[in-house]
Specification:
about 0% strand; 8 helices; mainly alpha; single chain; globular
């Protein structure tokens, strides 16, 4: 996938990748619906990040992009998109914490930043009135992904 993830298992890589699907569904569930605009924004964001020259994880995003739309559609049918599912998606996303701790600090911090900016993009993609107040109160409580713990260790990196 990418050299930054060489130290983790393929199962762990899958959990890191699935987090983007779960973030999309978490944000959608806060409003009780997954809209086409949210789907389009999620798919386009993953696609664009795959070919950003400055992205640490372009290979990672390229790999995710291969099946992202289908995986998102499948996941959205497996569980309801409503507020009752917020705990479910929160638990799914929080699985990244143990994996992030095993990655180099700079890599983990960048991935957390990517997750949060992704959540912001999904929340901003739909809603509001005439382009204003696009992020609902429910979304605002989730977009900073409080279930993902900040990285505290700061060992010497190569």
């Amino acid at each position: 996938m990418t050299k930054y993830f060489d130290s983790i298992s393929s199962e762990d890589k899958e959990i890191l990748a699935e987090a983007f699907i779960n973030i999309t569904l978490l944000i959608a569930s806060s409003d009780n619906k997954l809209t086409q605009k949210e789907i389009d924004e999620a798919v386009n964001t993953i696609k664009v990040r795959g070919y950003e020259a400055n992205s640490l994880f372009s290979e990672f995003y390229d790999q995710i992009n291969l099946t992202f739309k289908d995986d998102l559609e499948k996941a959205s049918h497996e569980h309801n998109i409503d507020k009752k599912e917020l705990d479910y998606y929160t638990r799914k996303i929080s699985r990244v914490n143990a994996i992030l701790e095993r990655l180099p600090t700079a890599v983990a911090k960048q991935l957390i930043k990517d997750y949060k900016s992704f959540a912001h993009r999904i929340a901003n993609s739909d809603g509001g009135i005439l382009g204003f107040a696009k992020i609902s109160i429910e979304e605002r409580n989730l977009i900073n992904l409080p279930m993902i713990m900040p990285i505290m260790h700061d060992e010497e990196e190569e």
